[in-house]
Design brief:
Number of strands of chain B: 17
Largest sheet of chain A: none
Number of helices of chain B: 20
Distance between the termini of chain B: 33 Å
Low-confidence stretches of chain B: 11-20
Strand content of chain A: under 5%
Structural class of chain A: mainly alpha
Number of helices of chain A: 13
Shape of chain B: globular
Radius of gyration of chain A: 24 Å
CATH topology of the largest domain in chain A: MetI-like fold
Number of strands of chain A: 0
Largest interface: A-B, 28 and 28 residues
Mean pLDDT of chain B: 86
Order of helices and strands of chain A: HHHHHHHHHHHHH
CATH superfamily of the largest domain in chain A: MetI-like
Mean pLDDT of chain A: 85
CATH class of the largest domain in chain A: Mainly Alpha
Strand content of chain B: 5-15%
Oligomer: heterodimer
Low-confidence stretches of chain A: 1-11
Largest sheet of chain B: 5 strands, mixed
Number of domains of chain B: 2
Number of domains of chain A: 2
Chain lengths: 314, 410
Amino acid sequence: MSGRIGTRIAPRFSPRFGPRLGRQELAAWSFALPALSVIGLFFMLPVATGLALSLTDFDLYALASLKNLRFVGIDNYITVLQRPLFWKALGNTLYFVAVGVPLSVGLSLLFAVALQSKLVRFKPVLRTALFSPVVATLVAVAVIWRYLLHTRYGLINEGLVALGFSPVDWLGDPHWSMPAIILFAAWKNFGGNMIIFIAALQAIPEDLYEAARLDGAKTWAQFRHITLPGLAPTLLMVSILTIAGYFQLFAEPYVMTQGGPLESTKSVLYLMFEDGFKWWNLGQASALAFVLFAIIVAFSRGLLWLTRRLGVEA
Amino acid sequence: MNRREWLAGTAALTAAGCARSDKPLVFWGMGREGEVAQELLQGFTQETGLAVQVEQLPWTAAHEKLLTAFAGDATPDVAQLGNTWVAELAALNALEPLTPWIAGFDHGDYFSGIWATNEIDGQLLGLPWYVDTRLLFYRSDLLAQVGWREAPRSWAEWMRCMAALAAGPVQRPLLLPSNEFEPLLALALQQDDRLLKDGDTRGNFSSPGFRRALGFYLDLMRRGFAPLQSNQEISNLWHEFAKGTFAFYISGPWNIGEFRRRLPAAFQGQWTTAALPGPNGPGASIAGGASLAMFRRSRAKPAAWKLIEYLSRPAVQGRFYELTGSLPPREKSWALPLLAADAQARAFREQLGRARPVPPVPEWERIMQEMQLFAAHAAHDGTPVDATVTALDKSVDVMLEKRRWMRSRT
């Protein structure tokens, strides 16, 4: 819902032909019409319906008879903002985004740069291996991760114990469940961004590095002054997409912890799913959806503003 | 024409209609019960000539599927319903009242607690199919080691028994997963106070009864008798039970079959079942289980009733027990030698006599989960009982707001 950031609106009438619809414009509209009607039917209409729904108290009783439907105005929004569980879920989601996005993007960048290095052998094999979690089915790998994270018999805890730490109850302890989910999500997702970074790295001209080396720049200086500025637009795009995606955290906790223990992994989207499809309070769930939408838009806008301030061209 | 004649007339007409159109009856079964329904219903088809199409739903998706089927006008003729869902589907007006149909059906031997879960506002909306209640599974050998030949019968005895076990062979004698709501609900149902008040439109969790139940529940954890953990952390319940990681577990009838099948023969003499201890002597427990319900939009109601009636016969229920371990809801089926001779199942029979229904409101499923969540938080953070029940009542009152509004209109 939120991937689109800016839309360009074509002027309705071109000044050259005056207010009457010229042949060219007619042709243009007829080309655009099929796509527009699909977007209208499958995007604009559901969004408008959702907005209308969020102003009512549509629930199980209303499903039985529309006589039980009340128009409640912005009451749903007020209720959402007054619910302690919403703030808890928002806190969990922000935690996930704040730690998960830098970790995931950092991993992508690290592996992309490493794979570009001339010292690394077997690049195609490594690239495939690192990308494979992205295409693996989430539910299947979640099951495997649950074995790895198991308190008593898991590989990760065996490693910790071998290193002299005490075992961690990863999915059962409210303090460790979110870190476990973040680790899992970062591992699952970094490959996609890594491929984008690799493509962007290949677009940076090699002679810049040669010139830098002639000037005596070391590896870190090359990375800092050539690679990073070259990657800046890609980095911005990847960050925005990852933030928007990570705000919609759902499948990982749904499969691994069911939002528990003690709601420590319940995200805003998870709360919305429960409200809407478990308890059938579609009015409240729709209001929650719009609140989440506003938050994601605000964050993406904020990031764009920040990068403009920092002088990076997007 | 009186109602019976009219019913018989429609029955004949519909039967004739069925024979012509050859449309099978549609039956929705859930989980394991759905799997065996096909086999159970072969006899029905032989007897009546009515074909039945059995559709299996997984339990996890069944609730959503029923609601979407109602919204999409695609409900079956007959379905198996978890008995806490009856109120929800009744609110949708999706179910056909069975009161007129049971006129010629002998139902005096059904357990009253279970029967009550199917009655909403004086209408019978489902016929109990099998029952489910919770009681104690325990390690008789470990209890004998600390001098208990019998299972504890009251809360005080239970505490004493666990103290003895904790000092001896089992450090944490009770398994009480923080994400299972059934144990606390059972303890709460043992009290005289109802869980909801004002015509089931407000929470009654600050009543002395619920405070007592929650206090006892939290005490079990605060004294260290039950570890603070969810059932996700137990990788193999049966194995841990056999190892003696815990000596008590509160669970349902299906685990009789599981313990028999999954644990070695040598171990079988070392565990058994007993009634759930109550505040003073054997206590009440949950009246759970599933019912058979007929949908209002069914086009073949007489045939649908025949199907429900067939599945409720003692002989068919005996076969059902053999196939799934599901316990029958009526005295006559319990008289079958198969069940009468089974000591571990008999404890359930005894417990069923003391089973109590939950408030029949559509919001109940959600209220129950909220209750467990508040209790789990209290167990983790040490929130006092008073603060917990006040906050819980407040939260439940918000959930029931729509119900109050609906009530005030009529």
